[in-house]
Amino acid sequence: VVYRDEEELAALQPDFELLKSVDRFAVIATAPGRTADFVSRFFAPAKGIPEDPVAGSAHCTLIPYWSRRLGKSTLVARQISPRGGDLWCQDLGGRVSMAGHAVLYLEGKIILP
């Protein structure tokens, strides 16, 4: 869903119970940004994720969309969830590249036979 501006997107107060009934995996909401090229929010309550803080998977769709809309291949994105984060993005044609800061939340080992 594309909104008019960042303020309109930030003001969203989703009904997560209603969103659970939508016949989709998730909902991506986006708008032009004030200090970034575009901003977004990502909701997947049916999968146990009311609002993802920074959804790289959503940006795989958003980067080509905004690249075409803005006429440039290098973009700065901001996900404006409560925790939020910034992504430095590039549309590479059939692929995208993104970078940003991450928070380590789990560490472990997988042992395969």
Summarize the structure in words:
The chain has helices at residues 6-10, 16-20, 56-70; strands spanning 27-32, 38-44, 49-52, 74-79, 85-91, 96-100. The protein is of the alpha+beta class. Strands 1, 2, 3, 4, 5 and 6 form a six-stranded mixed β-sheet that branches.
Calculate the terminal CA-CA distance, rounded to whole Å.
Answer: 45 Å
Helix content: 10-25%
| Strand-residue proportion | 25-35%
> How many beta-strand elements?
6
Rounded to an integer, what's the Rg over CA atoms?
A: 15 Å
Would you tell me the structural class of the helices and strands? alpha+beta
Q: Nutshell version of this structure?
A:
With 113 residues, the protein is α+β, with helices and mostly antiparallel strands.
Present the secondary structure layout.
Layout: H1 6-10, H2 16-20, E1 27-32, E2 38-44, E3 49-52, H3 56-70, E4 74-79, E5 85-91, E6 96-100
Parallel strand pairs: 2-4
Antiparallel strand pairs: 1-2, 2-3, 4-5, 5-6
Q: Any key phrases for this structure?
A:
six-stranded mixed beta sheet; alpha+beta; 3 helices
